[in-house]
């Protein structure tokens, strides 16, 4: 017992000594949307508690969600490139209109489960790291994800074929093309406008994260939830290159190691939160929340999964390839395409 106490003391002493070796650094971070669980449960505690604690108080950080800074999201990459924002988190789909390569890992139908989404992301990350590094002076530190983007409908839906003739709120071009491929019409609107739109039948359905929809009480204005991930809304964690180079190499190594853990934790959390969203919107006993919805959970059939793959290959991929460069399409085929056995062609 005495030997165990001594070894524990030695471990704490070594950890403290290692933290003391780090020079002091004070960081400024612009995080993701502050009202979502990815920020509240992972990002904010990581920067304000984990990093200071693990560094013995040597590395500290201030963080605010980009919405709290009065930003809309699409400008974050430019602000990081200019050094106005040091460390930042931003959803890849925000940059899709600037360069369609930013859609590559999150095309609708590409990853119908979290394991596939992670494989696709890891395969393509070096391509994005080179793109941002060469063109934007931005260093990519990691890519995490939100919970699965799924369909909430205020109408009976038994499968994807039922989207025909329905008005669906979408938040990205690839989602819009997905809805249109099934004969629905895409409607663009802000997240905050969706509840009254569903309530007043301005739209029949809307796509968002399963848990985000629960948090925003979409279960009060929707009846059916299709448990088939359409896409994931991955987000990048990055830093201005000049700001990064000003940091001591020991601080750089410390941050890289811990951000890798943060990214893994967010991925694990997204898988659990996807299921929690399904449980809580539909009132399943497994839901840990006090308030539960009463939506009907529609489990996708094998036919729906096959249909999703068919639409991806025949409509989503060709449309995306047409607007992306030849180099971009080649990079996709060499990484994501190879991983999944799909091919994009211009």
Please report which band the strand proportion falls in: under 5%, 5-15%, 15-25%, 25-35%, 35-45% or over 45%: 15-25%
Proportion in helices: 40-55%
The number of E-state strands comes to 11
Average residue pLDDT = 92
- Rg computed from alpha carbons, rounded to a whole number of angstroms: 21 Å
- Overall structural class, as computed from helix and strand content, comes to alpha/beta
Distance between the termini: 68 Å
Placed side by side, the strands forming the largest sheet appear as 7-6-8-5-9-11
Major beta sheet, specifics? 6 strands, mixed
Low-confidence stretches: 1-17
Cα shape: globular
Order of helices and strands: HEHEHEHEEEHEHEHEEHHEHH
Counting DSSP H or I runs of 4 or more residues, the number of helices is: 11
Describe the structure.
- This protein has 346 residues and is an alpha/beta fold.
- It is built from eleven helices and eleven strands.
- The strands form two sheets. It has a six-stranded mixed sheet, sandwiched between helices. A five-stranded mixed sheet has the order 2-1-3-10-4, sandwiched between helices.
- Helix 5 links the parallel strand 6 and strand 7 (185-188).
- Helix 2 (37-54) packs antiparallel against helix 9.
- The radius of gyration is 21 Å and the shape is globular.
- The model is unreliable at 1-17 (pLDDT under 50).
């Amino acid at each position: 017992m005495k030997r165990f106490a001594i070894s524990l003391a030695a471990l704490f002493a070594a950890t403290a000594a290692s933290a003391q070796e780090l020079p002091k650094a004070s960081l400024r971070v612009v995080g993701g949307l502050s009202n979502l669980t990815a920020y509240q449960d992972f990002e904010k505690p990581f920067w304000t508690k984990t990093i200071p604690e693990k560094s013995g108080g040597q590395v500290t950080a201030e963080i605010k969600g980009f919405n709290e800074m009065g930003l809309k999201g699409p400008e974050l990459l430019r602000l990081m490139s200019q050094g106005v924002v040091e460390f930042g988190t931003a959803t890849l789909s925000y940059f899709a209109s600037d360069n369609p390569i930013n859609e590559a890992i999150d095309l609708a139908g590409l990853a119908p489960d979290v394991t596939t989404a992670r494989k696709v992301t890891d395969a393509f990350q070096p391509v994005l790291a080179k793109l941002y590094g060469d063109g934007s002076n931005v260093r990519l530190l990691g890519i995490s994800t939100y919970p699965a983007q799924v369909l909430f409908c205020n109408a009976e839906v038994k499968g994807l074929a039922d989207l025909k003739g329905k008005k669906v709120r979408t938040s990205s071009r690839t989602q819009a093309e997905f809805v249109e491929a099934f004969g629905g019409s895409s409607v663009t609107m802000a997240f905050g406008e969706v509840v009254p739109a569903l309530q007043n039948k301005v739209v029949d359905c809307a796509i968002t994260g399963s848990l985000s929809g629960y948090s925003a009480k979409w279960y009060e204005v929707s009846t059916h939830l299709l448990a088939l991930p359409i896409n994931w809304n991955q987000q990048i964690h990055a830093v201005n290159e000049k700001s990064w180079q000003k940091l001591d190499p020991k601080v750089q190594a410390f941050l890289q190691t811990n951000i890798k853990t943060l990214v893994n934790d967010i991925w694990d959390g997204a898988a659990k939160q996807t299921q929690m969203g399904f449980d809580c919107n539909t009132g399943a006993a497994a839901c840990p929340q006090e308030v539960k919805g009463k939506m009907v959970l529609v489990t996708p059939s094998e036919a729906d999964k096959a249909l999703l793959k068919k639409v991806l290959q025949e409509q989503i991929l060709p449309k995306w390839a047409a607007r992306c460069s030849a180099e971009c399409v080649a990079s996709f085929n060499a990484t994501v395409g190879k991983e999944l056995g799909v091919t994009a062609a211009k």
